[in-house]
Each structure stands twice: as C-alpha cells, then as structure tokens.
Amino acid sequence: MRKIILMLLFATMSGGVMAELVHIGQGDGKNLYANAATIRKRGDVVTMEDVLDYAEVTTLHGYKFSSAISHQEYDCKKKRLRMVYLSLRSGGMGSGTTVTSYKSRSNWIPVVPRDFLEEMWKFACSNQ
C-alpha cells in the first residue's frame, strides 16, 4: 500500500512539472522545451530553466546523456543571454541521474536571429 501511495505522489508531482514545459522548437534530433514555471524577472534580466531532449544518446567530452537541463539568464533589453547552470541527464526529458553538471555564470553572448536561443529569449522575455 505504501508503494502505491508513493507512486501516486510521484506521478502527481512529476505531472505538474511536465505540464509547465512548453515546446519551443526541434531540429538535428533534439527538442527544446522552456519551463514556464521557472521564469523570474529582475530588472531587464529574466531567468528561466529549459530542457533539451535528444532523440538518441549523445556524447559530449566523454559523457553520455539523453537530455540536458539548463538555467539561463536573458537580458531582454540588450538581447543577450548567458548560462548559469547545466545538468546532463541519463534519461529523456530531464529524467534519470545527473551524468555531470556545471554551475557558473558564463559570459554574455548575443542572441543570434533564427536560432533556438532566439526563440528561448523571445519566450522568456515575452512571458515575464
């Protein structure tokens, strides 16, 4: 009985998180989702988490992963962004265990037109 309750609780909690994911785009065997529930504004800067989901297991610097969760800062006025946190995950849609993670504010980079990152910037800055 306890296992059933825990499974239902987990399903309810994870369903709420998944409901907040908004599909932003797809290409090159991957799909990008914004987590609308994580949008926060501080002045001209908006922070938001996203999920990059790969159709196949991907390898980067020797790490094999199926998805990535990242936390970005978007400067809505200067049209630029930077990564704050990255977690490579063993399962799809940000699930599974953390393969590796990186936490550090990168340098600001300009948003490039007609790119996944431009779509993320537009979503973050228009949904604040």
Structural account:
- The structure is a single chain.
- With 128 residues, the protein is α+β, with helices and mostly antiparallel strands.
- The chain has one domain (20-126): Lipocalin.
- Helices cover 23% and strands 52% of the residues.
- The protein is built from 2 helices and 7 strands; from the N terminus they run αβββββββα.
- Strands 1, 2, 3, 4, 5, 6 and 7 form a 7-stranded antiparallel beta sheet that branches.
- Strand 5 (80-89) and strand 6 form a beta hairpin.
- It is globular and about 35 Å long.
CATH superfamily: Surface-adhesin protein E
Q: What are the segments in which pLDDT stays under 50 over at least 5 consecutive residues? A: 1-17
**Average pLDDT:** 87
Give the total of beta strands: 7
Give a quick rundown of the structure.
This protein has 128 residues and is α+β, with helices and mostly antiparallel strands.
Q: What attributes characterize this protein structure?
A:
128 residues; alpha+beta; seven-stranded antiparallel sheet; 2 helices; 7 strands
Give a topology summary.
Blueprint: H1 2-19, E1 21-27, E2 30-42, E3 45-60, E4 63-75, E5 80-89, E6 98-103, E7 109-110, H2 116-126
Antiparallel strand pairs: 1-2, 2-3, 3-4, 4-5, 5-6, 5-7
